[in-house]
Structures are given as structure tokens and as C-alpha cells.
Design a protein that fits this description.
Layout lengths: L20 E7 L6 E5 L8 E2 L1 E3 L2 E11 L2 E9 L2 E3 L6 E4 L2 E8 L12 H4 L8 H5 L1 E3 L5 E3 L6 H16 L16 E2 L4 H11 L3 E6 L4 E7 H12 L7 H5 L3 H11 L23 H11 L3 E6 L9 E7 H11 L21 E2 L14 E2 L4 H10 L4 E5 L5 E6 L22 H5 L18 E2 L5 H8 L6 E5 L6 E6 H9 L1
Parallel strand pairs: 12-13, 18-19, 21-22
Antiparallel strand pairs: 1-5, 2-3, 2-6, 4-5, 6-7, 6-9, 8-9, 10-11, 13-14, 15-16, 17-23, 19-20, 22-23
Helix pairs in contact: 5-10
Amino acid sequence: MLSPGMDSAREGGGVAGTVLIPMNFVWSYGGRSVYLSGSFTGWTNLYQMSPVEGCPTVFQVICSLTPGYHQYKFFVDGEWRHDENQPFISCTYGIVNTVLLARESDYIPPPMSTAVSSLTNMDVDNEAFQQLVRISDGSLHEVVPRVQETDLEVSRHRVSLFLSTHTVYELLPESGKIITLDVDLPVKQAFHILYEQGISIAPLWDSFKGQFVGVLSALDFILILSELGNHGSNLTEEELETHTISAWKEGKGYLNGQIDGHGRALRRGLIHAGPYDNMKDVALKILENQVATVPVIHSSSEDGSFPQLLHLASLSGILKCICRYFRHSSNSLPVLQLPLFAIPVGTWVSEIGQPNRRPLAKLCASASLSSALSLLVQAQVSSIPIVDDNDSLLDIYSRSDITALAKNRAYAHINLEDMTVHQALQLGQDPYSPYEFNSQRCQMCLRTDLLQEVMDRFANPGIRRLVIVEAGSRRVEGIVSLSDIFKFLLG
């Protein structure tokens, strides 16, 4: 029996002079301690695997192997496991995974191209490594898997069928709480409530009408602070105190030019769903109206009186149902085995993405908070990667981060132009501390990650977007959101 205490050398034994190929072994299914063993060690050593920064459920280790056929297996929390999503066979050692590396004569040594040298560090992804091939003119090109139209149609049809035949009722938790705000509540008080409760959105209740009439979100506070900032250098509590939620919603209508024939502000009706609506309709409501959640409301009366707020439906909850349903039949959705860069999903930097798509919005840490808020509104995005001078990811500023200004009433004595994004993200900490990478806030992935792996990440609570980075350098290449995934799956 192998034990975790054994030597964790990185080289498989080989004949002197043999070219060794770096192979990145990945375990994507969590665990406290993960090790690797295989035929390349004679099944006598365990290689300790390390968690990937920003991806706590993903472990990896790089081993230099001789070309040829190898078998391997994972030792996870004291149990032998194999990866069902990789090739596997049954043999003397039970079920093991297999890999066939190119023959020595087919292997392209790193010095032959700068494209390869950028992939030779210890963080290189194996799929990206194997996608480099020699063509007739001796150059190296990246092989991009094509999305087969039939595979796309089959996958979309099966996802659509599942969502159309399952109702929102399945999304309802056994227990939980929903914070609801009265429309006559002062904006300042609502601001503090969202911050104290750790939420970025709340349904609005009109006690006079006896109805839920809308939602208050982090975007509302961004617009409020930006509008107030246009009329003076500093924001004051008094200015926020004079605005009730109802007054703000009416003022927002005027700002957006939503006025009826009598000069009165038009309010958009509440976008909601019932517990017996199907999941596909709710997902389309969220996408078409560009909202984060849809309140699930039920009333036993025909006239809709005495409504009950049951839940806030989101794309995250719907995706979790999709992942759970297809967990043991992922092969029925062929597109799940495609890497991110091979499918039209997400927003990319211009060098990687399609030139006719909108560019990726990003900022440096020294940019003003005012510029960050303006970019969130104008680019119609929910988050902005914060990068250093080399475009490496440092942090991410999201709409929901605006509620941090409620801490110690920071909004009352700041200037949006003078405060930097760094300072806004460091509220409550030392604003002059060096800006270092924040692995807890930055959820990342690689462009070679399979769609299935990305969807599994999004099924975790609280993850709404993944920043696509270059392995090793963390240079930002793009960003993919929950909305992007659903737009692709639903066509």
C-alpha cells in the first residue's frame, strides 16, 4: 500500500539522453490531500499535488515523463480514485487512467519556438501543451477544436428540454431568509441594510398597494452616488437621507428618459415568476431583462392579493440543477468536452477574442473609483478585472462592492474622483498597504478549461464570473460570466 509520506520526486525514471515531456496531471474534484501515482514510478512513489491558486477544488502536479503509454491514479484523502472524465481501463491495480505521450521523434523541444517557451513553466496546462503541433512549414500552430453543429444542436436541445420540463419549485430551498425593503425607506438606511446583511439586491414592498413593486440593487447605489457626485465634490449623509427608495425610482425614470405622455416617470413593472413556471422561461427572463435575480411570488387569490415571496431565482441555482441532472450522463452533452477558447462564450482581450466583439473592460489599481463606477454603467458589465502594469490580475471590482462604502459611513466623506479602486477595495484595512493578488476574491480559470469544468465551478454558491488568465503569469485574457454560459447553452 502506498503512503503519502513517500518521496514526491517530479521525474519519471528514463534512459539518459531521453527527452522528457512535462505532463500536467489535474484533479478537479476537491479534497484535503491529493497525491498521484502511476506506472512511471513503478507504483512505488506518491507525488503530492498542490491546489491551484484561485481554484481551491483543483489540484495539479507536473511530472516529466518519457514518451509512450502510462497509467496513473489519484490518492485522495486516503482513498484511491480515478478521473471518470479522462480515458481509463481496468487492470491489476483496479480502474486506472491512461495517457499516451508522443514518441520522441514527434516531440517538439521547447527551444524551437518562443510560443513553446512561454508554456514550459510549472503552471502550464497539459491540454494547451498537447494542442501545439508541427505543420509542414516547420512552424507551430494551436489546434482549435471546432464546434460541430450537430453536437451544438443536440446539447442545446437536451438542455432546453430539461429546463422546459422542470419548474422553479425545484429551486426553492428547504429554509432560508429573504430581506425585503419598504419603498418608503430612506436610501441611506437601505444602503446600510444591504451592507450589514451582506447582500447586493432586495425586493421592494409597497405597503399602500400591498404588492411587491420592484427590486433595489447595487447598481441603484452606483447610479445614486454618481448622480449626487455630479452636483458637488463631496457626498453627504443629508443628501442621501432626503431620498426615499420610491423617490429614487421615480427620479431614475426621469434620468433614463422614461416619461409618459403626461410628463410622469414610467416605472418598469416587476419582473417576477411563479413557483410553477418552467426554468427555461425564468432563465430567458433573466437574460432578456439583464437582471441578476427574479423574485418567485405566489398568491392563492385570483386577483394576486396577499402575495408571498418564496425565493429569488437566479442563473446560479438553475445551472446547479443542470449540473446535477447531467452529472452522470455528461456525454449526452457533447459541447461540455470543448475548451473555453473553442466556443463563442465570454469577453476576451482583442488579441484573443473576435475583433467584432466588444473589448474587455479592465482597470489599473490606481484608477479612480469614479472611473470604475462609470465603466460598470457604460460598459453594462457587473465586474471589472483590476490589473498591474503587466496586465496580471490583482483583484476584481464588482457592482456589489459599492455597498462597502456604507462601512463607517465612508460615502459621507469621500470624493469619487480622489478615491482609487485600490482604496475602495481596501476599506477597513490599511489603504497604503502594497497591492497584492487577492486569491479569495478572484475566481480564475484557463482558456483550455473544459466547459464542463467551468460549469461545475459556477454551480458553487457566490461564483458569478471567472477571470480567464494565462497560466503562471495570471495575465488577463478574458472573463466569462453565468449569463455568457446560458446565452451559449440556450442559443
